[in-house]
Amino acid sequence: MNEPEPTTPGASQPAAAGPLSKPLPKPLSTEAARTTLGAPQPAGAGATEAIGIGRLREQIDSIDKQLVALLAQRRRVVEEITQVKQQHDLPTFHPAREENLISARRAQAVEAGLDPDYVEDLFRAVLRQSRVGQLRTLGRRAARPGARVLIVGGRGSMGRFLGAWFTQSDYEVRVLDRDDWPRVQSLTAGLDLCLRPCR
User: Fold this and answer.
1) Which residues are CB-contacts of 172 (< 8 A; sequence separation ≥ 6)?
2) pLDDT, tens digit, for every residue of 153-183?
3) Which of 20, 85, 167, 169 could serve as 140's disulfide partner, Cβ 3.0–4.6 Å?
4) Which is it for strands 172-176 and 193-195: parallel, antiparallel or unpaired?
5) What spatial distance separates the first Cα and last Cα of the chain, rounded to whole Å?
6) pLDDT band at 116 (very low <50, low <70, confident <90, very high)
7) Who's near 175: CB < 8 A, 6+ residues apart?
8) Which domains are assigned to the chain?
9) Are strands 148-152 and 193-195 parallel, antiparallel or unpaired?
10) 150 φ, ψ to 5°?
C-alpha cells in the first residue's frame, strides 16, 4: 500500500475537480467596465452635436460675420463724411462729438445688460481706426484752435498719443496724472474738454 506524501503546513493545495469548479472570468476592459457599471461616457463630437452646441456655434459665427459686415458699412459712411469735410474744409477730429458718442454707447450697453467699460473699449478702438483713415486724407485741423484740453492719465501710452495729436491740431493740451494732483485746480481752470483715455 502506498502511503500519502507528507504536506508542508501552509502550502497551497490544488483545487479538487468537481461540479462546482469553473474557469474564472476575464477582467473587463476599461470601456466595457464603464458601460457595464453605468459610468458616464466622455463627450465626443457626436455628443456635442446631440446637445446642440454645434448649432449654437454656427449662430455665433453668423453674428460675427454680421459684425464685420457692419464695420465695413460704417467705414464706407466714414469715407463719405471725410469727403464732405474735405469739400467744406471742416476739422478732422471733433472730440466733443466722440465723447458724446461714447457716453451714448455706454448708456446703451447698460440697457442691454452689457459691461459699459467693455463696450467703451470696443468703440474707442473703432473711433481710433476711423481717425486714422480720415488723417490719411485730411490734414489735422482743430474744431476750435487754442481750446484747452485736459487729458486725465495723459502719461500712459494712449494719453501720450492723444496729447501729441491734440498738440499738432493746435489745441492747448494739459495733463493730469498721479503726480499732478497738487496742481489740479490750475489744470482744470477754464477747460473746454476733459478726456480720460482707456489704458
Assistant:
1) 146, 147, 148, 149
2) 888 877 887 788 787 777 889 999 888 888 8
3) 169
4) unpaired
5) 104
6) very high
7) 150, 151, 154, 155, 159, 163, 187
8) 54-141 (1.20.59.10), 143-199 (3.40.50.720)
9) parallel
10) -105, 130
